[in-house]
C-alpha cells in the first residue's frame, strides 16, 4: 500500500525565495514538493511512531505564487483529486517596501460545526477565513490580489490539550482502554491528553477540517504556543509548578506537550539553515539515518526545556517586507521560582527581545500570545496581586493572593512588572529614536483573552511624556478567539473591566502596594468586541491599518462567513 499523508501539507516559513512545507505521513518515506521548475525532497524522521518531513523549496521569485504538489515515494498525495478549493500555492514574501498583510488570531478549539457547537463556541472564524479566501481565489483565477494575506500568525492555543471536544474525548477513552497497563501507573486525568500519541491525534483532529487544512496548505504560517497547548495557567507561578510537578502524570504531560510543539509548530518557524543549527534536529536526523525512532531524543530535550526553562529559546524573528516581526514566547521560559523576582521571558529570552527592540525598520511588530497592554483595571489588578504574592502586605496574605492569581488567571505581562517595565521602557526609547531610526509603528499583536480591542499608547510622565514620544505609533492589537467564544457572564465581566471606574479603583489598589507608574500610558480606543474573529494588519510604506473580521453563520448554507469591521488607521497615509 502506498504511503499517504496523515496531516498537512502545511505551508510554514517563507522568505523572498524559499518556502517550507511540513507534512506528517502514515509511514516512513521520501517526501517531494514540486512547484513549477522548483522542487525539494526530504526523508521522513520518526518520533514515537509518527513520521514527519520538512521540505524547503528554493529558487523561487519574490512575491510569487506557484501551485505545488506533494509526493510520497513518487505517489502524488496532494492536492486531493476531489478538493473543492483552488490549487494550493507556494507564496513567497514580497521584496522590501512592498505592502504586507498579516492576518492573526489565537485560541481555536476544533468543533464539529453542529448547531450545538456553534451555539456554545460560535462559528469558526478560521474556517470562515478559509472559505472566503478560497472563493476569492477561485473568482480571480489565482491569488486574490489585495485580499491575499502575506502570512498568518497563529499566536497561541492552537490546540486545547486540557479541554477536549467530544470526538477527541471518545478517542482518548478508547485508546487508553487498549493501552499497555504500565500507562495506567501515570494516573492520567480523564479528558486531558498526556502522551505523545494523544497529542499527535489532537493535532490531527484540529488541523484536518477540509477547509482549514486547505488554508494551512496555502497561506504561510508562523506559530507560538500558549497555556492550553500544554495546560491552563501553565507556568503561572513557582507554586503552580511545584504543585504540578507533584502530580504522577505531569512529567509525561509536559514532556509530550513540549516535544509535540517542537515537531508540529516550532520546526516550521525556521528556515532549513536555522534547523541545521538546532542540536536536537541534528540528533533527530542522525536517528533517522540509522533507522531509529527519535522519541527518546525529543523527550530528553523537552524534559530539559521544562526543568531548565531558560535553556531553550522558543522566540523567533522574521523580516517581512522591510519590517521586523518578533514572535515572542511569554509562556515556556518564565522564571517564576522567586515571587519577588519574576520574569515572563527569563534572562536569555529577555536579552533576546531587548536586543531586537530597535529602530532601523519600517514597522516593529511584536507578537506575544498574552496582551502586553490589558484594560487598565485588569492591568492594575495583576500588579497589585503580584505585589501581594511577593509579601507587600506580609506573609499571611501570600497564600490568599496565590489562590486569587490562579482563580482569576492573573498571569499576563502586567503580573510580571519587572519584565513589563523593561519592555515598555524599551518601546519608549524606540519611539524616541534612542535605539536607531524610529519605525513608523511599534505594534503589539496578542490574543488569549477571548475578546478583541485596539489600545493606543504613549509615553507617560514617568518616561518624560511628550518629550519622549517621537513619531512612532505604539499600539496593542488583540484578536481572540478564532473559535472559543466567551460565555455571557464572562463577556459582561470583560466589558466591565474596560470602564473608567474599575480602572480608577485598580490604580488605587496598585499604588497601595507600591507598584510604580508605567513608562507607558494607554486606553482602549476601540472595542472590546466579543465573538470569533480574525484581524488583518496592512503595512504599506509608513502607513499601517488594522481591521477585524467577525465570524457569523450563513442561515442558508449553514457555513460560517466573515463580516468585516471598519478599518482603523494607525498612521497617516504615506505620501504618493
How would you portray this structure in words?
It comes from Nocardiopsis composta. Residues 3-88 form the DUF7800 domain. Residues 146-483 form the PhoD-like phosphatase metallophosphatase domain. InterPro entries: DUF7800 (IPR056702), PhoD-like_MPP (IPR018946), PhoD-like_sf (IPR038607). This protein folds into two domains: 1-92, Immunoglobulin-like, CATH 2.60.40.380; 93-569, Alkaline phosphatase D (PhoD) (Purple Acid Phosphatase, chain A, domain 2), CATH 3.60.21.70. A hairpin with a 2-residue loop joins strand 14 (316-320) and strand 15 (323-328). Strands 11, 12, 13, 21, 22, 23 and 24 form a seven-stranded mixed β-sheet that branches. The chain has a seven-stranded mixed β-sheet with strand order 14-15-16-17-19-18-20. The chain is globular and about 70 Å long. Helix content is 32%, strand content 25%. The chain is an alpha+beta fold and 576 residues long.
Low-confidence stretches: none
Residue share in helix = 25-40%
Query: How many runs of DSSP E, i.e. beta strands?
Result: 24
| CATH topology grouping of the largest domain | Purple Acid Phosphatase, chain A, domain 2
| CATH homology group of the largest domain | Alkaline phosphatase D (PhoD)
Helical segment tally?
Answer: 16
Count of distinct structural domains: 2
Q: Can you tell me the overall shape?
A: globular
Amino acid at each position: 500500500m502506498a504511503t499517504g499523508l496523515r496531516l498537512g501539507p502545511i505551508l510554514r516559513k517563507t522568505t523572498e525565495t524559499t518556502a517550507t512545507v511540513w507534512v506528517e505521513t502514515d509511514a516512513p518515506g521520501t517526501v517531494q514538493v514540486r512547484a513549477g521548475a522548483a522542487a525539494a525532497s526530504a526523508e521522513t524522521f520518526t518520533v514515537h511512531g509518527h513520521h514527519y518531513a520538512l521540505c524547503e523549496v528554493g529558487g523561487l521569485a519574490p512575491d510569487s505564487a506557484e501551485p505545488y504538489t506533494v509526493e510520497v515515494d513518487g505517489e502524488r498525495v496532494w492536492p486531493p483529486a476531489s478538493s473543492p478549493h483552488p490549487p494550493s500555492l507556494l507564496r513567497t514574501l514580497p521584496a522590501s517596501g512592498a505592502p504586507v498583510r498579516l492576518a492573526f488570531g489565537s485560541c481555536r478549539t476544533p468543533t464539529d460545526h453542529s448547531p450545538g457547537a456553534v451555539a456554545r463556541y460560535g462559528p469558526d472564524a478560521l474556517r470562515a477565513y478559509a472559505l472566503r479566501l478560497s472563493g476569492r481565489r477561485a473568482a480571480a483565477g489565482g491569488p486574490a490580489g489585495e485580499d491575499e494575506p502575506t502570512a498568518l500568525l497563529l499566536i497561541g492555543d492552537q490546540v486545547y490539550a486540557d479541554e477536549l471536544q467530544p470526538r477527541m474525548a471518545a478517542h482518548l477513552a478508547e485508546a487508553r482502554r487498549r493501552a499497555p497497563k504500565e500507562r495506567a501507573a501515570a494516573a492520567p486525568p480523564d479528558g486531558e491528553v498526556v502522551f505523545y500519541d494523544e497529542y499527535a491525534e489532537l493535532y490531527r483532529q484540529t488541523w484536518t477540517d477540509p477547509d482549514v487544512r486547505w488554508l494551512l496548505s496555502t497561506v504561510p504560517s508562523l506559530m507560538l504556543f500558549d497555556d492550553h497547548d500544554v495546560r491552563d495557567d501553565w507556568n503561572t507561578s513557582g507554586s503552580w509548578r511545584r504543585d504540578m510537578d507533584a502530580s504522577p502524570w505531569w512529567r509525561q504531560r509536559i514532556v509530550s506537550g513540549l516535544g509535540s510543539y517542537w515537531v508540529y509548530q516550532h520546526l516550521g518557524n525556521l528556515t532549513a539553515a536555522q534547523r541545521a543549527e538546532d542540536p536536537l534536529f541534528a540528533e533527530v536526523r542522525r536517528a533517522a539515518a540509522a533507522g531509529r525512532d527519535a522519541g527518546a531524543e525529543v523527550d530528553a530535550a523537552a524534559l530539559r526545556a521544562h526543568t531548565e526553562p531558560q535553556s531553550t529559546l522558543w522566540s523567533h524573528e522574521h523580516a517581512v517586507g522591510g519590517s521586523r516581526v518578533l514572535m515572542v514566547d511569554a509562556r515556556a521560559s518564565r522564571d517564576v521560582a522567586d515571587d519577588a523576582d519574576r520574569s515572563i521571558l527569563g534572562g536569555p529570552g529577555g536579552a533576546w527581545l531587548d536586543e531586537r527592540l530597535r529602530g532601523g525598520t519600517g514597522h516593529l511588530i511584536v507578537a506575544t500570545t498574552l496582551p502586553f497592554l490589558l484594560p487598565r483595571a485588569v492591568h492594575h489588578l495583576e500588579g497589585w496581586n503580584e505585589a501581594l504574592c511577593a509579601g507587600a502586605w506580609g506573609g499571611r496574605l501570600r497564600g490568599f493572593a496565590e489562590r486569587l492569581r490562579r482563580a482569576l488567571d492573573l498571569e499576563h505581562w502586567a503580573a510580571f512588572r519587572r519584565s513589563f517595565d523593561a519592555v515598555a521602557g524599551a518601546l519608549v526609547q524606540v519611539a524616541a529614536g534612542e535605539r536607531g531610526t524610529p519605525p513608523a509603528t511599534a505594534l503589539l499583536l496578542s490574543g488569549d483573552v477571548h475578546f478583541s480591542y485596539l489600545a493606543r499608547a504613549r509615553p507617560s510622565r514617568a518616561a518624560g511624556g511628550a518629550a519622549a514620544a517621537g513619531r512612532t505609533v505604539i499600539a496593542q492589537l488583540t484578536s481572540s478567539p478564532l473559535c472559543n467564544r466567551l460565555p455571557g457572564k464572562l463577556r459582561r465581566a470583560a466589558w466591565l473591566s474596560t470602564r473608567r471606574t474599575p480602572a480608577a479603583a485598580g490604580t488605587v489598589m496598585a499604588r497601595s502596594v507600591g507598584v510604580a507608574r508605567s513608562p507607558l500610558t494607554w486606553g482602549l480606543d476601540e472595542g472590546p468586541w466579543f465573538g470569533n474573529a480574525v484581524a488583518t494588519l496592512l503595512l504599506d510604506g509608513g502607513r499601517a491599518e488594522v481591521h477585524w473580521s467577525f465570524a457569523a453563520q450563513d442561515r442558508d448554507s449553514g457555513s460560517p462567513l466573515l463580516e468585516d469591521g471598519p478599518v482603523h488607521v494607525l498612521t497617516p497615509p504615506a505620501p504618493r
